[in-house]
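Dissemination and training. As part of the outreach component of the grant, students in the summer workshop were shown how a complex can be specified as a set of sequence lines and then modelled as a single object. The example used during the hands-on session is reproduced here so that future cohorts can follow it. Participants entered these lines:
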Amino acid sequence: EAGVAQSPRYKIIEKRQSVAFWCNPISGHATLYWYQQILGQGPKLLIQFQNNGVVDDSQLPKDRFSAERLKGVDSTLKIQPAKLEDSAVYLCASSKGSVEFFGPGTRLTVL
Amino acid sequence: AQKITQTQPGMFVQEKEAVTLDCTYDTSDQSYGLFWYKQPSSGEMIFLIYQGSYDEQNATEGRYSLNFQKARKSANLVISASQLGDSAMYFCAMREGWPGGYNKLIFGAGTRLAVHP
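and obtained this result:
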């Protein structure tokens, strides 16, 4: 069974630019999550989808971050415009039951 | 409010020995799940083991076991027979309203484990 796929793996941008990350969950997993992991900290949930509906986006900075999962499968997370403090690893995870399985992450550096 | 505390920023262990990584949690919920993940330097979070709050037996998965002490609100991870490949960050996490429900997973700050030959 293929795991959670994410791309790109690394991205370097300048502040005020925009960036998008892509995630393809494990086949059959209805729940998809985006996490932000700042260096030296544990992951923090940004947004959670159940199929193509949003379950929790309470910690998503909606003035600059957006996410969608239009067909209930893959998802994109966008940052526009990026700030220096957005430098982090962005992890996508999916679940069918109660255990989340994570992708390899995208390491974003904002200069 | 739910909270996970991992008090050991870093741990060292000799290869083939056992090591315990500490995790304490705080919740007012009666139903919750506790999880451990491993994060190697490559960055991917690897699921290791989980324990439900109503599970009477401590969870085990190969060389990993979870020492669950409900009254003390602790869920320590025990790794037996450490291997060099166990060197990584280890995160404890909790989800309230588990199993089922859509509550988010809350992570601790992590413990960095270094296994020495």
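The interface with chain A takes residues 4, 33, 35, 37, 42-47, 50, 91, 93, 95, 98-100, 102, 104-105, 107-110 of chain B (CB under 8 Å). Students were then asked to discuss how this feature might be tested experimentally.
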